[in-house]
Amino acid sequence: MCGKKNLDVSDLILEVYDQSGLSRQFAHTDTKRSREALLNLRQLHELASNFEEFHGRDLSLFIDYLEILDEMDGNPSPARIADEEAINLMTIHSAKGLEFKVVFVTNLAKDKFPLYRGGTEPLIPPELMEQYRDIFDDESIKDTEKAVRERKKEIKKEEERRLAYVALTRAKEHLFLTLAIKYADDEREPSEFLLDIGYDNWRAGGNILYGDLSYFRDNDIKVREMVKDSALEREKAMRKRLLIESLDSGNFAEIMKNTLLYQALKAGEAPDFKELFDSNWSKINPAEDAEKILGIIKENKNGVKFNPATMTFSYSSINTYENCPRQYELKELLRMPTRDSEDSTGAMNRGTFVHKVLEMAVSEKITTKGRLYEIRDTVAKEPDFRGVDIEAATAALDVFWERNKNRIANNLMVEQRFAVPLGGFTFKGFIDRVDLMPGTKNEIEIIDYKTGKSEPGPDARSKQLLLYARGIEHVYPQYKVKRLTLEQLGLLNPRTFEMNDGKFESASGSRMEGLDEKAVEDMIEIARKIAHDYEYGFERTKDEKACGECGYRLYCGE
Ligand code: SF4
User: Fold this and answer.
1) Residue 228 and which of 188, 455, 486, 490 are 20 to 30 A apart at CA?
2) Cis omega (within 30 of 0) on the bond before 114?
3) Considering only 38-42, 141-145, 200-204, 269-273, which range has the smallest mean pLDDT?
């Protein structure tokens, strides 16, 4: 590392992962725990990248920053893989970035949420903090302490409001917000955050409908047993506790005794337990269920469950899996950072730049090359594209103009997203451009721009183009895909395929073979393999050549 003194903090962190072997420590243990460990490494790297963006690349400043975070209890929560088939109990902070079908947010009552108390006092005195400067600068404020206190309250409230926003936006389908009518013996009003979203008629009770929201006041007491206080209730509560404790003892007689005693106390009588057992035995039969459950657990090697509703596939993610299943896991599932990304950033940025210019030019249906250049110059000023090789990008734009200048007017859509269900999985994609075929009302051409010099092989182009065709016809059933084009701006000719007798055949005038209809089935098959590997582990590729160029070597290998 001595020779790498000029590394950014985030790059230095990856260097430490690599040289210490930390990143590879989890490579051979493909379990939920090891995935969470890798996600934590990613989290630290993200923290460093964000820090660099605002405060520069000084390592000692970053260490100071971590210390301050630590002292202020502001460390990010450890990464967790949410269990899809269980109820996940978590703080709002640790729910950041996660989404669930159904979310319950509790305690939306006054003085519970927002909470004005709690949190650690910042180490920096208010006099030195920007948020309080106006108070100290304003000579008309006599009681600065009080003003600071008020301001702190406002700041805390804003923090809590952001937190409420996080909580309320975690749900994909249903969001339940709850509060109790009484806490201990005190009646509480609803949280002001609830009032903000229209819950202003709460005293009326019953159901209140307000837009998409419905409020329901439930007057049933949910914790009757706990609030009752009698000798019987106390005995029942004690037996229940003993029963729970005895469950772990493995002492069958003890467990049964507590179970039956508790049942008798609940019912208020002791029945003939033997008779009860004999008559119910066929319904109980726990051996069969136990075998079934243990079988499922044994089968599921790494403790994580694949859920097709939460995962989507794309042409490029399928391609990554084919290249190397382990790379798929690191790149698509865990989104681990790589060092080698700098090497390809130039070409990647150029591709993104050209795509952006073409998106604007085509959607505007430009009619002159001069306008294309104007758009190029505007986009080039964006901070993301600083350092892009404009000369190389212009060469691609020139090729585009020569081939497309007479067709831009036919454009129907640009940058079109789609999601299509195939074989029980969801496939997504992003189509650069869709044109209407001249002289038709519902026949379309899909165009994908490629700016590199390499050409996808027959298998890859069949997969990508046929997926796009299925996707767009799913989203827009009124259109029929007639033509599929790979507009290869770095090569002599585009590759075009046209529908003929139910098949896409090459229309490029060469002897190129048509698209293989089986490609979509093959992609579904690969999605099945991914679903399997999600639970059983992703293997490394056997083709060592693939590792040579791979940015994920850092997490892989011996
Ligand atoms: S280094 Fe090789 S085995 Fe590891 S992820 Fe990359 S391609 Fe796969």
Assistant:
1) 188
2) yes
3) 200-204
d(CA 326, CA 511): 36
Atom of ligand 1 nearest to the CA of 550: 6
The band of 372, judged by pLDDT with boundaries at 50, 70 and 90, is very high
Domain count for the chain, please give it: 4
Domain coverage including residue 34: 2-71
Instruction: Please report, as a single letter, which amino acid is at residue 219.
Output: N
| 401, 409 Cβ separation under 8 angstroms | no
Backbone angles phi, psi at 390, to 5 degrees: -65, -30
Does the residue 334 lie in any domain?
Answer: no
pLDDT of 342 higher than 50? no
Distance CA 537, CA 302 (A): 7
Q: Are residues 503 and 401 part of one domain?
A: yes
Residue type, 405: K
Compare 444 and 36 and report the one with higher pLDDT. 444
Query: Are 170 and 100 within 8 A, CB to CB?
Result: yes
Look up residue 283 and give its amino acid.
K
- 164/478 Cα distance (integer angstroms): 42
**Residue 164 sits in the same domain as residue 105:** yes
**CA of residue 8 to ligand 1 center, whole Å:** 25
Residues 162 and 280 in one domain: no
Is 286 found in the same domain as 149?
no
Nearest of 8, 22, 38, 51 to residue 335 by alpha carbon: 38
Give 511-544 pLDDT, tens digit per residue: 778 999 999 999 999 999 999 999 888 889 998 8
The CB of 540 under 6 Å from ligand 1? The reply is yes
Q: Is 324 in the pocket of ligand 1 (CB under 6 A)?
A: yes
Report angle CA 394, 399, 401 to the nearest 5 degrees.
90
Residues 179 and 263 in one domain: no
Residues 397 and 462 in one domain: yes
For ligand 1, atom 2: residue with the closest CA = 547
Ligand 1, atom nearest to 541 Cα: 3
Residue 526 lies in a domain: no
Q: What percent of the chain has pLDDT over 90?
A: 32
- Mean of all residue pLDDT scores within the chain: 84
Token pair 């639970």 in the structure block, residue: 535
pLDDT (mean) for 217-234: 65
3-state class (DSSP) for residue 233: helix
User: Is 497 part of any domain?
Assistant: yes
The answer to whether 321 touches 460, Cβ cutoff 8 Å, is no
Structure confidence at residue 364 (pLDDT): 95
| N- to C-terminal Cα separation, the chain | 20
